[in-house]
Amino acid sequence: MIDAQSALASPAVIRREDYQPPDWLVPDIALDFDLDPATTRVTAVLDVVRSSAHGRPLRLDGDGQVPTKVLVDGNPHNDWRMDGDTLEIDLPGSEHRIETEVAIHPDRNTQLMGLYASGGNLCTQCEAEGFRRITFFPDRPDVLARYSVRMTADRKRFPVLLANGDPIASGDAEDGRHWAEWRDPFPKPCYLFALVAGDLSANRATFTTMSGREVQLGIWVRAADLPKTEHALAALQTAMAWDERVYGREYDLDVFNIVAVDDFNFGAMENKGLNIFNSRYILADPDTATDADYDAIAAVVAHEYFHNWSGNRVTCRDWFQLSLKEGFTVFRDQGFSADQGSAAVKRIEDVRTLRAAQFPEDAGPLAHPIRPDSYMEISNFYTATIYNKGAEVIRMMATILGPDSFRASTDLYFDRYDGTAATCDDFVRCMEFGSGIDLTQFRHWYSQAGTPRVSAALDHDAGSGRATLRLAQRTAPTPGQPDKEPFVLPLKLKLFGGETGAALSNEQLFMLDRPTADITFDGVTERPVLSINRGFSAPVIIESDRSSADLKFLSAHDDDPFARYEAMQQLMLDTLVAAVTLGRADHEPVIDAVRRTLEDPALDRAFAAEAVLLPSDSFVGDQLEMVDPEAVFRAREALRRDLGKHLAGLWRSAYANASQAGTFVYSPAAKAARRMRSVALGYIAASGAEDAADVAFAQFEAADNMTDRQGALTTLVNGKSDKRIAALDIFYNRYSGDALVLDKWFQTQALSMRDDTPQVVADLARHPDFSLANPNRARSLVGAFGVNQRAFHMAGGAGYRFLADHLIALDKLNPQTAAKLLPPLGRWRRFDPARATLMKAELERILATPGLSKDLFEQASKSLE
Ligand code: 0A1
Ligand code: ZN
């Protein structure tokens, strides 16, 4: 609950070291919902069992309710008390049946946690602690129960009634109502509970599992959206087969349903047998979804499905273990996506996400280990660190173990912990048992925050033919962790001959587990060039003394595509950092390297399109002692302009070649062509070519798919031509009824590099289609603006004020979503004193707001520490 107190008294801190097993277990629960958007009555019958010989009362979590009825063993019971939100009952024996009744109000639930209304339907979100907003229960993931659910609702308004598990029975009730019963045979924590009541239609299919069982699949949406569910349904079937093949995991119920809702705080939720999705990760057709949307849909559908084993069958003991399910499941969905198209491009995208979202988190006031030690509000820990760095940690273990041992170890893990609530350490122990490898020191990845920096210097003595690579690691202090133990860093290395381009060594996996190490290579007869952290084998920052000539060389010759991309990125970064810090830079090496990449006929177009992109403004900013956003913007624009001008002919022909594709198909080759087309268009515009806006506008009008249309719109919205206004109007009118596409309309403008973006964004916040109540819409404007480094940090602090105003307003409706959007303000240490002062003042203003949620309190107070 939000109350006036929480801004005054700091919320309690929950600590990992305080974990105690539950006092009472609940093997079975029967729920009865009398559903209505205004008031829903929930009756819960819990079979409770004392877990050991203790004398403590039964404590059931709630959130803002008081029970309207309590029965113990069938008898009315008055001897209960509320301790804050917790219902406490003294019980004499070791086994009892407890019945409670509460009344809840879905249509007043703007937090979108618990049971809420979205687009006229009713749905639930219980992770992490939403179940207590539905009924009284021990709301912790290590209490696993078998659920029976009965729902009654108006048949007309809510013809479809879904819950976890398998449908058991259904029928008519009085007054135009009907009922349905569902039973889930698999014991689960309450965060995996779900129900949906609504006017929905299903796209149905079946999947036959590896042991020959037939599963009924359904994707439930508004009837009008059914044609947009084909891609998600196909992705689900592909993911189910992939998990059988790659991890030996078979689905376990007779039905698997997915429901899409428009109002959702995160991406999607893996409720047992009944996944609930943000509609942006389900709905797609060529006219409304980009290739990136299609890819994200497949990845999220797979992610939630994979949770059935990594999360549901084996769940988490407590919320400090969140990365046990999330890091592992992200790693699994990354593997799935890599297998669907270009694995190299997928790795590039994943590393880009890590650097954009996780590295800054690890370097800022909200840094935490992938297994945190404490929290005030667990919702604040659904972070890039838990998810994406967590996936990198699993990836490193997979690399160290090798594929066969890794698979044997995951088999062991699933087998040993099936039906239980496990810890990160249980997982690591299985990796050790399955492989015989000692991971004692590796465990620092679970306890220490911060991104390690590895310096690499290569010496070569031509006389003796010996090359020496000197490596050193250090990790800067993070909040609460002044000193770090050395990490275990699996670094893939290779040497190339700087003159001949020949491989001078095989790729080797070197474990850097001390502060420093020297590696020698003999028989090195020519000047060696170092390829290091190939495939991004460790999530670290490499600092090497490689010259631009060496980086240019690697960008053309390295046989690891990721390393090749990385060399180009480093060359670009070095050039941009020199431009910002020295005021000048030689653009020639970058131009030359990009030219070679474009001209190399052997290169996959999808890869080439990614390789020629400059690092983002904010990634360049992250390399600097103190970020000067305008200087970064100018340096990057200047390099873009030079690349555009000097390679004008190549961009034109890349554009023309990529445009030859006929009508829309979603295939790797067609995707690559569309990507190259947008990238080339961007460079044509950056060159200042007179006809750039015409080319973009023509593409915008002729496009038969959203990728080309939005690519053109983005180019126009970043440019000076008035055609952008026409394009924005056409886009708006064409899609005015489609919320997901309108999100793109808001987002594209919020991300614009134009001078007037802060003003445009302020105006858009007053647009009739803007609303903070819908999380997608709030993120598309307020969230996107916060990560637009140039616009957000424009001198004067208007951007900071804008963000703080909207966070304060959003906190009243939806604290979780507000708290997620705060981190850009917490980066004040990285900016000049004038900006830092303005940013801190906004954080202080947020903190001084009466009735602040603990979500926003935790984020803002930690950001000021
Ligand atoms: N477990 C989900 C993420 C998720 C977390 C919290 C939510 O509450 C609003 C919703 C979803 C996943 O990893 O997909
Ligand atoms: Zn997940």
UniProtKB/TrEMBL annotation:
Residues 450-544 form the Peptidase M1 alanyl aminopeptidase Ig-like fold domain. InterPro entries: Aminopeptidase_N-like_N, Aminopeptidase_N-like_N_sf, PepN_Ig-like_sf, Peptidase_M1, Peptidase_M1_dom, Peptidase_M1_pepN, Peptidase_M1_pepN_C, Peptidase_M1_pepN_C_sf. CDD domains: M1_APN. Residues 549-865 form the Peptidase M1 alanyl aminopeptidase C-terminal domain. It comes from the Bacteria. Residues 97-192 form the Aminopeptidase N-like N-terminal domain. Its cofactor is Zn(2+). Residues 233-443 form the Peptidase M1 membrane alanine aminopeptidase domain. GO terms for molecular function: alanyl aminopeptidase activity; metallopeptidase activity; zinc ion binding. It catalyses: Release of an N-terminal amino acid, Xaa-|-Yaa- from a peptide, amide or arylamide. Xaa is preferably Ala, but may be most amino acids including Pro (slow action). When a terminal hydrophobic residue is followed by a prolyl residue, the two may be released as an intact Xaa-Pro dipeptide. It is an enzyme of class 3 (hydrolase). Its EC number is 3.4.11.2. Keywords: Aminopeptidase, Hydrolase, Metal-binding, Metalloprotease, Protease, Zinc. GO terms for biological process: proteolysis. Belongs to the peptidase M1 family. This is Aminopeptidase N. It comes from Sphingomonas panacisoli. The lineage of its organism: Bacteria, Pseudomonadati, Pseudomonadota, Alphaproteobacteria, Sphingomonadales. The gene is pepN.
